[in-house]
Specification:
Number of strands: 8
Order of helices and strands: EHEHEHEHEEEEHHHHHHHHH
Number of domains: 2
Oligomer: single chain
CATH superfamily of the largest domain: Dehydroquinate synthase-like - alpha domain
Shape: globular
Radius of gyration: 20 Å
Largest sheet: 6 strands, parallel
Number of helices: 13
CATH class of the largest domain: Mainly Alpha
CATH topology of the largest domain: Dehydroquinate synthase-like, alpha domain
Length: 386
C-alpha cells in the first residue's frame, strides 16, 4: 500500500454468450458504423467462424456494404498495419471489425493510427501525440488466448528493427467486444492449447508482477481458475460450448489483468516469435516453467496463491514446497494439453541464443518480473528452455 499512485480501469463494453455475434449489426448501427472494414488473416476465410460473420453481416444487413482485408500474418508485421490502413482508405470505410486471433485484433486496432496519419512509421509512434478521433473498432476474438480484444496496445514486428514492439495507447481500445464461443468451436486442439496457455501465462505473470494493482490480481486469479478447469475440456472436445465460453472469458480476463504488467516469460517469448516465427502461445508455454523456477528460487512462496487458484492444497505448505507443487502442476498441465518438448523441437538453434537474449533484454516486460533479471539470466533461461 506504499506504492506510487496507480490507475484502475476496466471500461470495455462486452457482450458474451453463444450466438452473441447476432447482435453485431444492431450494435454497429447504434455506434453509427456504416461501412466497416473486416480485418482478419487468410487462414480464417474458409472457416465456419468466418461463415458465421459473413452470414451475420449479410443476412441482417448494415444498410451499407462492408469490406475485407485478409492480409494479416500469423505474427503481425508493420506492413500488415500499413496495408490494412490503405484498404480502409481506398474503400472509404468508417470503422473496423477486427476478427480472428491476437494478430488480427492487433492489426485491426493499430491500422487506425495509420488511417489517421498515413505517413506514420510505427517506430516513431508517440503516445503523447493527438490521437483523438480514431475510427471505431469492434473486436471479435476467434481464439481464447491473447486478450487483445480488451487491450490498450498492439504488438507488431517493426520493419526497421525486426523486433516485436508494443504500441501502447488507451485510445486503441475497442468500442465493443463480442465474445461468442460459437466462433471458436472449430479451433484445432493444438491451437486451442497454445492460445489457452498464453492466457494462463498472462494471468500468472500479471498476478506475480510487483506492480500494485489489486483489481487485476483478483481478475488474474479467477482467470487461472477458469483456465485450469476449462482448457483440458476444450482441447479434448472442441464442441464443448461451456468450456469454449469459459476460455473466451478467461482470455479476456488475462488481457484485463496484464494492464498491471507482465514478466520475463514474455520478454523471452517475444523474440522467439519475431526471429523464429514461433507461435506466441507455444513460446510462452515452453518458457513459463523455467521462469517460474527462476523466480521461486529467489522469492519463495511466490506461487502459493496461484496454486490455490489451480485447486491445489498448498495453503499450509512451506513456501518452497508450495512453489514446487505449483510448478510441477503447471509443467504437467502444459504437457497434458499437448504442448511437449523444448525450443529445439520447435526449430530454435542454440546458435540463436545470443541474439535472442539481446532482444529479450531490450524487451520491457521483464522490468516488472517479480525479481530482477540480467541479460545473462535471460540467456540461461533460454538454455534451460532448449
Amino acid at each position: 500500500m506504499t506504492a506510487p499512485v496507480s490507475g484502475f480501469a476496466f471500461p470495455t463494453p462486452t457482450i458474451f454468450g453463444p450466438g452473441a455475434i447476432a447482435e453485431l449489426p444492431t450494435r454497429l448501427k447504434q455506434m453509427g458504423c456504416k461501412r466497416p472494414l473486416v480485418v482478419t488473416d487468410p487462414g480464417l476465410l474458409q472457416t465456419q467462424a468466418f461463415h458465421i460473420l459473413t452470414n451475420t453481416l449479410g443476412a441482417k444487413g448494415l444498410g451499407q456494404t462492408w469490406d475485407l482485408f485478409h492480409g494479416v500474418h500469423s505474427n503481425p508485421i508493420e506492413q500488415d498495419v500499413v496495408d490494412a490502413a490503405k484498404a480502409f482508405r481506398e474503400s472509404a470505410c468508417d470503422s473496423v471489425i477486427a476478427f480472428g486471433g491476437g494478430s488480427a485484433l492487433d492489426v485491426g486496432k493499430a491500422c487506425r493510427l495509420v488511417v489517421k496519419r498515413p505517413d506514420l512509421k510505427l517506430s516513431r509512434f508517440n503516445t503523447y501525440d493527438d490521437w483523438s478521433g480514431l475510427a471505431r473498432c469492434v473486436c471479435i476474438p476467434t481464439t481464447a488466448g491473447t486478450g487483445s480484444e480488451v487491450g490498450r496496445s498492439s504488438v507488431i514486428t517493426l520493419a526497421g528493427t525486426q523486433r516485436r514492439s508494443v504500441i501502447f495507447l488507451p485510445r486503441l481500445m475497442a468500442k465493443l467486444v463480442v465474445l461468442d464461443p460459437e466462433v471458436t468451436l472449430d479451433l484445432p486442439p493444438l491451437l486451442t492449447a497454445a492460445t489457452g496457455i498464453d492466457a494462463l501465462t498472462h494471468c500468472i505473470e500479471s498476478f506475480t508482477s510487483p506492480t500494485f494493482q489489486p483489481f487485476c490480481d483478483g481478475v488474474a486469479l479467477e482467470g487461472i481458475h477458469y483456465i485450469t478447469e476449462a482448457l483440458p475440456r476444450a482441447v479434448k472436445d472442441g464442441k464443448d460450448i461451456d468450456a469454449r465460453g469459459k476460455m473466451l472469458v478467461a482470455a479476456a480476463m488475462g488481457g484485463v489483468a496484464f494492464q498491471k504488467d507482465l514478466g520475463a516469460t514474455h520478454s523471452l517469448a517475444h523474440p522467439l516469435s519475431a526471429m523464429c516465427g514461433m507461435h506466441h502461445g507455444t513460446a510462452n508455454a515452453i518458457c513459463l516453467p523455467p521462469v517460474m523456477e527462476f523466480n521461486a528460487q529467489r522469492k519463495p512462496g511466490l506461487y502459493r496463491r496461484v496454486g490455490i487458484a489451480c485447486g491445489l492444497d498448498v495453503m499450509r505448505a512451506k513456501p518452497e514446497d508450495a512453489d514446487r507443487k505449483v510448478i510441477d502442476y503447471i509443467k504437467k498441465f502444459i504437457a497434458n494439453v499437448g504442448i511437449v518438448g523444448g525450443l529445439r523441437e520447435n526449430a530454435v538453434l542454440e546458435s540463436q541464443v545470443d541474439a535472442l537474449s539481446a532482444q529479450a533484454y531490450a524487451d520491457t516486460c521483464h522490468l516488472t518480473n517479480p525479481v530482477p533479471v540480467t541479460r545473462e539470466d535471460l540467456r540461461a533461461l533460454y538454455q534451460a528452455a532448449l
